[in-house]
Amino acid sequence: MSRRIQTGAIAAEAAGAAPSKADDYLGRLVKYIPSEVVALYLAGTGVIPASDRLMGWIFFGVCLVGNPVYMTFATRDPAGGKRSLSLQVILASLAFPLWAFASGPPFDQFSWYASHRYVASLLLMIATLAFGAIEPKPGS
C-alpha cells in the first residue's frame, strides 16, 4: 500500500491502466497519520531516561522537523513521478505533535499535564477523525 492518498484522478497513462480508485474515509484517515514517525518517537522516548528532559525535547524537535521531510518523500507517486500531496504532508505534520502530546514524554514533566492528560487524548481523537474527512482535490 502506498503512503500517498489516491484522489481518483491519478491514471497510469504510460501503462494504459484505468484511473486508480480514490481512497475512502478510512484510507485517508490511515494515510494522514504519520505512523512511521510516531513509532520512531514512541521507541525513542521509551529509551530516553525520564531524568534527561533536554534529550526528550531534542528528540521531539528532531521528529517534529523530520516528519514533513519524511512525508514529502514517502508520499511521492513513484509510478507517475508526481510530487507529494501538500495537503497530506501538512495534515501529517499537524498530526504528529498531537500524537506526541497524547503519548506523554516530554510533556509529562509539566505538573498540569498529569491532571489534564485527557485533553491531549481528546484533541488527538477529534483531529484524527476530522482529518479523515478532508479530501485532496482530484488530480493533485
Brief sketch in words of this structure:
With 140 residues, this protein is mostly helical. The protein has helices at residues 25-32, 35-47, 53-74, 86-103, 111-132.
Sum up the structure in keywords.
5 helices, single chain, mainly alpha, 140 residues, globular
Structure commentary:
It is a single chain. With 140 residues, this protein is an all-alpha fold. It has one domain. The chain has five helices and no strands. The chain starts with 24 loop residues before the first helix and ends in an 8-residue tail after the last helix.
Give the low-confidence spans. Answer: 10-15
Return the average pLDDT rounded to an integer: 87
Number of strand elements: 0
Helix fraction by DSSP (H/I, runs of at least 4): 55-70%
Number of helices: 5
Describe the global form.
globular
Order of helices and strands: HHHHH
Could you tell me the strand content as a percent range?
A: under 5%
Through-space gap between termini: 19 Å
Structural class: mainly alpha
- Biggest sheet statistics: none
As a whole number of angstroms, the C-alpha radius of gyration is: 17 Å
Q: Number of domains in the coordinates?
A: 1
Write the layout of secondary structure elements.
Elements (H helix, E strand, L loop, with lengths): L24 H8 L2 H13 L5 H22 L11 H18 L7 H22 L8
